[in-house]
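Title: Prediction job returns without error message
Component: structure pipeline
Severity: low
Priority: P3
Assignee: unassigned

Description:
Job completed but the reporter wants confirmation the result is attached to the right record. Sequence as submitted:
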Amino acid sequence: MNKESYVKAVAKRLTCSKARQAEFVRDLESDIAAALSAGETWEQVESRMGDPRQVAQEFNEDLSEAERAAGKKRKRTKTIAIVAAVAVVMVAIIGAATWWVSPKTAPAGQSSHQTEQQVIERAQEVVALLDAGDYETLQSMSIDEMKVGLNAEMMEQAREITVPGVGEPMRFAGKVDGWYYALTVGVNVMLAWPLASFFADPAKEGAFISAVVCSLCLVLCDIFIIPTLLRNYVEFDGKGNLLIVFGFQKATYPVSKIRRLRETSNSLASLAASFDRIELRIGYEELMIAVKDKEEFFAEIERRCPQVEIVRRASVSKSR
């Protein structure tokens, strides 16, 4: 999680007035900037500050009753606005679907002076605009009474609800076990040994050919292994996709197609450098990954894709 995502994760859990929330966010950003200027890395700052949920909880516990009341009012207003934004999309979709399936004794869209195709195209336009984040155009399509509440923040949250898997970009570092490092070192030592023998005694019979073969093998192995140590992560791209990167291998899947996550120690070849793995069922495809912060990854999957089934080693649970 980068610093922008961290601040957003804290801010959205604050139960106070908008002004108090903005003030806290400014203070938090100022503290982070000061720490980075003092020489700390972002990883050190994040570790020291702790989980965003805990930071927000501690702040909320110290709020006055007046601030709590203001926070509840803001939450109610936000909920109403989100529902209104979702309604814009849903009305367009339902309207198109109704025209499509209802019996018609006259050309579709006659009462509104629109053809059936125009109604469908209008619904598709609304969904495309929401998916693309073109909130200004969406707002201009709304009636005057709805424009006040349909700001960019509210429609972004509506987008997260109506477009499965959409949310802020978030990256999870891949987990690498000690055995993987040991394997990397072992392979390099084993293949480098004939090279050392060649340089120690170049005249030895077969030493040159052995050195050439081992050199080629060493290069090929390191071309595959080293990148998996440097490029190993899973990322939500903010567009509804899950990006899996392992060395030179890269795969992208729609979050909405994820059906199941299962903890496993399966040793079969996979996009993972650890046996503490997560098996993903995406459509009819299965693959395995390993991330450092597994609990946070599970929570983020549940938030972005509520229908996903999560199977733990000790128990089986299905997200709410």
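Comment from assignee: result matches the submitted record. The chain has twelve helices and nine strands.
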